[in-house]
Amino acid sequence: MLGEVEESPPVERDWARIRRSRSFRIVLGLATAAVVFLADLLMPQGAAMGVPHVLVILISLRIGDGRVTYSLALLCTLLTLWGFHLSPESVGTMDPVVILTNRLAALLSIWSAAFLGIRLTKAIAQREAAMKEIKILKGLLPICAHCKKIRDGQEAWVQLEEYLLHHSEAIFSHSICPGCMDEHFGEYLE
């Protein structure tokens, strides 16, 4: 029928809700860490298999909890070091310095992704909070050149303060500028 919205089946709705849940993302991060660790065990020591652990960090950032991200970064660090210890020896052609450099690069990438990701997540949250506080008036406002009243949508003319009070979150406190003080009350001030 025209104008009706199709409702998704209950199974699809349940699966979508599960995918958005925090525990699902934690389990997904742990499973990804386990898969990367198993792949690391199959690779020679010189391979920087710790770098895919960054995927675990990216998944943890979707949770929005810095403690989980740091915990998973620590787990990925331990798995990278343990994978280095358990990985088969390189085929004699790899320089030990290169092997250690690759592992250190993997650790650097894990912790860089964690720190920078958390900073970015916090900055985005702060930006969104600030955007909620901002209410912007846009467009042309028909304003009287003489009395400064503004015409609203109902052809009524209202004071500028009243219009802004209803169409923004501004609050007014009245005062008198020095020029108006001199013009209107100058004779009393002398």
Overview of the structural elements:
By secondary structure, the protein is mainly α. It folds into two domains: 10-133, no CATH class; 150-189, no CATH class. The chain is built from seven helices and two strands. A two-stranded antiparallel ribbon has the order 1-2. A hairpin with a 5-residue loop joins β1 and β2 (157-158). α3 (54-61) packs parallel to α5 (96-133) and α4 packs antiparallel against α5 (96-133). The longest helix is centred in the middle third of the chain and has 38 residues, at 96-133. The model has no long low-confidence stretch (mean pLDDT 79).
Describe this protein with a few key phrases.
two-stranded antiparallel sheet, 190 residues, 7 helices, 2% strand, mainly alpha, 2 domains
SS summary, helix count: 7
Number of domains: 2
Estimated share of beta-strand residues? under 5%
Category by helix and strand content? mainly alpha
| Global geometry | elongated
The largest sheet, given as strand count, sense and whether it forms a barrel, is:
2 strands, antiparallel
Proportion of helical residues:
55-70%
* Mean of all residue-level pLDDT scores: 79
Radius of gyration: 31 Å
**How far do the termini sit from each other?**
79 Å
Tally the beta strands: 2
H/E series? HHHHHEEHH
What strand line-up does the widest sheet have?
Answer: 1-2
- Which stretches are poorly predicted, pLDDT < 50 over at least 5 residues? none
What's the SSE blueprint?
Elements: H1 10-20, H2 22-42, H3 54-61, H4 66-86, H5 96-133, E1 150-151, E2 157-158, H6 160-167, H7 178-189
Antiparallel strand pairs: 1-2
Helix pairs in contact: 2-3, 2-4, 3-4, 3-5, 4-5
